[in-house]
Amino acid sequence: MSLLRTIERTAKAAKEASRALSRASARKKNAALSAMARELLRDTGRIMAANRKDLRLAAACGLPKAMVERLTLTEARIAEMARSVRALASLADPCGSVDRRWRRPNGLLISRVRVPIGVIGIIYESRPNVTADCAALCLKSGNAVVLKGGREAACSNAAIYTALRRGIAGAGLPVACVSMIDPEDRKAVGYLLKMDRYLDLVIPRGGEGLIRAVVENSRVPVIKHYKGVCHVYVDGKADIGKAVRICVNAKVQRPGVCNAMEALLVDRRIARRFLPVIVGEMRANGVEIRGCRATRAIVPGTKPAKASDFGQEFLDLVLAVRVVDGVGGAAAHIAEYGSGHSDAIVTEDRSASRRFLAEVDSACVYSNASTRFTDGCQFGFGAEIGISTDKIHARGPMALEELTSYKYVVTGNGQIRD
Amino acid sequence: MSLLRTIERTAKAAKEASRALSRASARKKNAALSAMARELLRDTGRIMAANRKDLRLAAACGLPKAMVERLTLTEARIAEMARSVRALASLADPCGSVDRRWRRPNGLLISRVRVPIGVIGIIYESRPNVTADCAALCLKSGNAVVLKGGREAACSNAAIYTALRRGIAGAGLPVACVSMIDPEDRKAVGYLLKMDRYLDLVIPRGGEGLIRAVVENSRVPVIKHYKGVCHVYVDGKADIGKAVRICVNAKVQRPGVCNAMEALLVDRRIARRFLPVIVGEMRANGVEIRGCRATRAIVPGTKPAKASDFGQEFLDLVLAVRVVDGVGGAAAHIAEYGSGHSDAIVTEDRSASRRFLAEVDSACVYSNASTRFTDGCQFGFGAEIGISTDKIHARGPMALEELTSYKYVVTGNGQIRD
To answer: What chain B residue is nearest to A222 in terms of C-alpha separation?
Structure first.
């Protein structure tokens, strides 16, 4: 059978499974999640063995250290994977909940009810835990999922997938609720992205190149999780102690993630007081500072920032610093260089705060808090499939509710239109 | 300047205008809508003259009669256009409203706030009133819009556009809130669809061919308004009087629109009693019936339905009729042949109704009411830009709220992440 036919059959089977899954009770879906977690634990040995195969190949290919680290599974990581899957069972089922309900003058009762999206394609790179996470999140929200992982994690993903399918089948749901596409064939993704007859949504999880390629080729709607170029703006009316704590947390606590600060904007009115303090603190934390001209005039010896340092996602202990003129200057800088992810103001001036929160067009805007809170769990959503930088359908932390659509249920007693 | 550069400049100017528009007060936007309506009325003569040019060209090209009808403007139609624009001023502003607000254990206060999407591209065909409607809906919801109409309506659209811009400028908003792309150049749409740096959403309004071409070529997210293949299922436990009224209304009241019934499904248990009645009623209303084998056995002389008659959007006084086995048979038929638009059950059996409403995966599902109610105004939304058959972002009647996105506004007093 040709690859195109194989992909088409997989997508069609997923669509059929999604119909059964959309009717499954919360109880049945939760039982499947528990079974999936149990099978992952039971297969720990097999998954580890598969992972060792991937790691041997990675070593042979000279895969970069950071990718090898992401690829590596341990017993503890598999246990954590199983825990995440099981934890979803305790969250509320987003399907069937009523967003709102109203009655029309003619007596029609209209309810907007949450329903699964249908079939979701996930295209991702090296981390094998994404396989279990995405399968579980989609199943919990009533969606069938078609997974396409990276070639470098092929054996690990296949072993995890085998365990998950056994759990699903054991719980009496169709195994096609979760399916996986052979990562070896480069044409497979292209074919999958044309399956708009069966797929309702594609979520690419990975670097910018992967996401752009998906957007370029997809007929299926895509929700993008692009980079996070997050800013903290320290206003002239900031409490300096608060500003230092927030900036250090946003930059240093976990610099390799998308909600970490990449550029610090300092109001000219406070620059002479604040910059020497924050630069000292950052350096004490091992952060390399790249400053604009005004920054370097105040803190001599600072490395000059290149134009390309603004708008850059360093994902490292590097920070671009720029002096700006008030909230207006900060908002203009963020409009030009930001990525619409997370941006914060530190100020005691409520009108400055209001203006920043209104004018900065990012998924999450903060006043007097660290950008590091942009996270489904920190928001209280219990889980997340990623942080959307799109403005269509889902924005910011994308959790179970964002994995649903809705339909209008209209009940009457014979109403017809005049 | 090359066409690509022209389109890019237009898109970029729209993005800048959208920033100013997103900060405009409801009052200012409403003043602009009133001014736009006023300028439309003032330019009635010029718009009519431009329309006559289009009509002359249409006659010379031998444009089909239905298209000429859609293209034709009269004083009354222009007055109606202005009324629709002005009516939006009295609707609530969707921007700034808070979907929900909650406090986290660490004291952070999180609000999900409605914001404009940004820049919306509308690609449409012959009706010139779409120009005014879409410009006004986008402006009201705080979005800049880039319009690309059909070549056959080029003069009419340009005249309407001129009037609208004068209104916008007079109200003190940037004219680039509404812009229009020369419909003469076929490459223009292709370029526009690559402007994902500036455009946030594209809505194609037109036939299936137009929509597919947009989906095929767009890097910008698309919300699709595909066809409506709507079904009414008459259950074994239906009230026959109600069923007749609903079916006749759904088919006959306005057969040329997307929420009209295209296929009637009749439960085998009631077919002998119901079919002769409904076929008689339909014929009395000038409807051509195309029946399945079982239908023809009960009502001899009925024209046989071809396989392609099911799933067909006739938009005419033609009805496909099929006998099915209960709710399960109806749901299976709709899953196979429906377009996910609007489908209804007629029954007095509450469990049959519940099952149908749950299992049929369409934007709007009805119990004991006509499918003709799928409409923003009938739902009480005041206006609509169309009926989405997508499941991402907006489904069913797409009104002002669906023309917005949201952002999370998070306020704290120095919170940092552990």
So the answer is: B221
Contact between B118 and A365 using a beta-carbon 8 Å cutoff: no
Whether residues B199 and B320 fall in one domain: no
Specify whether A337 is located in the same domain as A241.
yes
Which helix (H) or strand (E) segment holds residue B262: the answer is strand B261-267
Residues 48-77 of chain B with CB under 8 A from chain A are: none
**In the prediction, which pLDDT does B186 show?**
78
DSSP string, A53-96: HHHHHHHHHT--HHHHHHH---HHHHHHHHHHHHHHHTSPP-TT
Token pair listed for A334? 């963020």
Q: Which of B363, B396, B397 is nearest to B382 (CA)?
A: B397
C-alpha distances in angstroms, A170 versus A100, A145, A275? 36, 18, 60
CB B367 within 8 A of CB A412: yes
Are B179 and B117 members of one domain? yes
CA B263 to the chain's CA centroid: 21
Compute the nearest-CA separation of B155 from chain A (Å).
Answer: 33
Beta-carbon contacts of B45 under 8 Å, excluding residues fewer than 6 positions away, are none
pLDDT, one tens digit per residue, over B178-203 is 999 988 887 999 999 999 999 999 99
| A15 contact B CB<8A | no
Length in residues, chain B: 418
Residue B267 and residue B323 in one domain: yes
My answer on whether A158 and A118 are in the same domain is yes
pLDDT digits (tens, 9 = 90+) for A155-205: 999 999 999 999 999 999 999 999 999 888 879 999 999 999 999 999 999
- Is residue B381 in some structural domain? no
Whether A257 maps to a domain, the answer reads: yes
Q: pLDDT tens across B230-266, in order?
A: 999 999 999 999 999 999 999 999 999 999 999 999 9
User: Residues of B with CB below 8 A from A414's CB?
Assistant: 239, 242, 245-246, 368-369
Task: Collect all residues of chain B within an 8 Å Cβ-Cβ radius of residue A411.
Answer: 353, 357, 366-369
Do B318 and B349 belong together in one domain? yes
CATH classification of the domain holding B404 = 3.40.605.10
Instruction: Say yes or no for a CB contact (<8 Å) between B368 and A414.
Output: yes
Residues B181 and B235 in one domain: no
Domain enclosing residue A200, as ranges: 3-224+394-411
Number of independent structural domains in chain B: 2
CATH at residue A356? 3.40.309.10
Option in B242, B361, B393 nearest A22 (CB): B361
Q: B290 and B143 in one domain?
A: no
Tell me if chain B has a CB within 8 Å of the CB of A390: yes
B103, B417, B418: best to mutate for the A interface, most A CBs within 10 A: B417
- A389 lies in some domain: no
pLDDT tens per residue across span A375-387: 999 999 988 999 9
Beta strands in B1-118 (DSSP E): 98-103, 109-116
Considering only CB atoms, which chain A residues are within 8 Å of B250? 416
Q: Which residue has the higher pLDDT, A27 or B186?
A: A27
With beta carbons under 8 A apart, name residues in chain B contacting A222. 221
Does residue B198 lie in a domain region?
yes
